[in-house]
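Bug report

Summary: structure tokens for UDP-N-acetylenolpyruvoylglucosamine reductase differ between web form and batch submission.
Environment: batch mode, default settings.
Steps: 1) Submit the sequence below via batch. 2) Compare with the web form result.

Sequence submitted:
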Amino acid sequence: MIGVGRNHHMYGKLTEVTSEKNVMVDEQLRNHTYTRLGGKADFLVTPETYEEVQAIVKLANQEEIAFTLLGNGSNLIVKDGGIRGIVMNLKKLNSIWREDDKIIAQSGARIIDASQQALKESLHGLEFACGIPGSVGGALYMNAGAYGGEIKDVLESTKVITREGEVLTLPAADLGLHYRTSNIPEKGYIVLEATFSLQTGNAEEIKAIMDDLTFKRESKQPLEYPSCGSVFKRPPGYFAGKLIQDSDLQGKQIGGAQVSTKHAGFIVNKDNATATEYIELIRFVQSTVKEKFGVNLEREVRIIGEDPTE
């Protein structure tokens, strides 16, 4: 943890650039991740404007303090030792609006809600996102996709802040969007908003597609327990879930973490799992599948933070 004097100094600096209600000290990150895993953040900051985001980034640079962007924690495992320095969550930047045949969504909005807004506006193209649990920023970060659609199919441009605190508007082509990846982490961009270019459609037809996708998701995915969604990327020529199932790993449990009995591609927090148990189970699945089928399962989920101290 940061020393007491430094801690007090940083709290004062952070509350100068955003209000006290937006700065939490020693906050348990398990309260902010879909898996319900993770230790404490020294500071968890939830800015409400782009200017506040910019000021926090510049402050972290000036003070030479570690800085981490959390997103909404849907595709993320935070280790039990937590995260040092400033952790920023953009959940309060969650507006979504229409301009012509475009939907513009701030990064803290849920991509599901952007999809619902498109339906309300009778705009076609975002139906695939109706069941993706992440934020808009997170969806760009990993070029999220489902049921044959992905972010790069509909993204026109994005507004970002660089790690130096500069605001840029970038075309989608500049983001290196490929299967479940982008250059956003490598460039250190913080996504502020995304512009999706859609087509005018028929609301009833759009809703029918979304209802069908929602049914498929709810019938196949283990939504009754906390999870980070699909743990592994699809290996070329295979399906991760099928490989895990064929390795007889469904129901395999380490501590409170379990390979879902409903969908083998998911690992659920069945019974107050620790992040350490969850990560151990991911590694066990990877090594078992490698041994049985010679296939490397690459993680789709991000793991960040520090190991717990004894």
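Above is the batch result. After comparison, the two runs are identical; trailing whitespace caused the diff. The longest strand covers residues 190-197. The two ends are 14 Å apart (CA to CA).
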